[in-house]
Amino acid sequence: MGLLGNVSECDDLRYHLRKKDFINRFVMLLDSQSDGIEVSYNSAGILAHLISDALPLWDDPSEPYENDKARILMKMDEAISRWDLNSKRNINYRSFKPILRLLRNIDIVWQAQYWAVWALANLTRVQGQ
Question: What's this model's pTM, rounded to 2 decimal places?
Answer without folding.
Answer: 0.89
